[in-house]
Amino acid sequence: MNNYIFEAEGKTKSEAEEYTLETLRLQPGDLKFEVVDSGKSGFLGITQKKPAVVRAFVANKDIPSEKIIHGVIITILRKMGIPAEVVGMGDVDGKIYVELTSKESGLIIGKRGATLDSLQFLLNLMVDSKIRHNRKIVLDIESYRDKRELSLIRLAKSIAASVIKTGKSKLLDPMNPFERRIVHMAIQEDERVFTRSEGNGTFKRVRVISAKDKHKYKDLEDPSKKGLPVDDFADEAEVD
């Protein structure tokens, strides 16, 4: 995005600029604008008028990072053709949580949250390139991540029950580090089963194994981590 933090359209350049300031709740001196397209009138008043397009850049270095985050994520989604609004933003444990709402929430979430995770990664990358605030941004929409966490906890306990009953290990679908950690933590207190991660890269799979077979995997555990797999504690750097 070449360091601009927001792109807007309007019937005129002035209208697009006013919309930007209103959306980000900033003052005229906080931003400087670049005209991408001045707009064109429709032919003889019959064809549709082409809107004016402006891009906003930071002019005041004291602008809160939350304003920049707001502008960047909305611009990304608009370029994807997805209308959305930021309905909440706050700092929790050093991370900035951004809550969205949209009629197209399913498109933003994607399959098992894959699109949401990709958007979160892109948002962090772009914001860091502009302000280098060294805080992770957690992107969510309509409390999807809370719902996903509860779903993963239920899944982990259900799979654990199956493994205990049959004695056969179960391999879950690929997950990101944050989701794998939820699964590990959900059943770590159950001494009848244990977990390990398999695969390479960010998206690995969690295997739930009967404690009767634990002797086969001793080399993959770190007792100092309460029995959780070593590789997913290494992944904490990705999660945090």
TrEMBL record:
Domain R3H: 146-212
Pfam families, per the entry: Jag_N, KH_KhpA-B, R3H
Chain positions covered by the region annotation Jag_N domain: 7-57
InterPro entries reported in the protein's UniProt record: Jag_KH, Jag_N_dom_sf, KH_dom-like_a/b, KhpB, KhpB_N, R3H_dom, R3H_dom_sf, R3H_KhpB
Domain of life according to the entry: Bacteria
Main location: cytoplasm
Keywords: Cell shape, Cell wall biogenesis/degradation, Chaperone, Cytoplasm, RNA-binding
Similarity comment: family membership: Belongs to the KhpB RNA-binding protein family.
Oligomer status and interactors: Forms a complex with KhpA.
Record's function text: A probable RNA chaperone. Forms a complex with KhpA which binds to cellular RNA and controls its expression. Plays a role in peptidoglycan (PG) homeostasis and cell length regulation.
Full protein name: RNA-binding protein KhpB
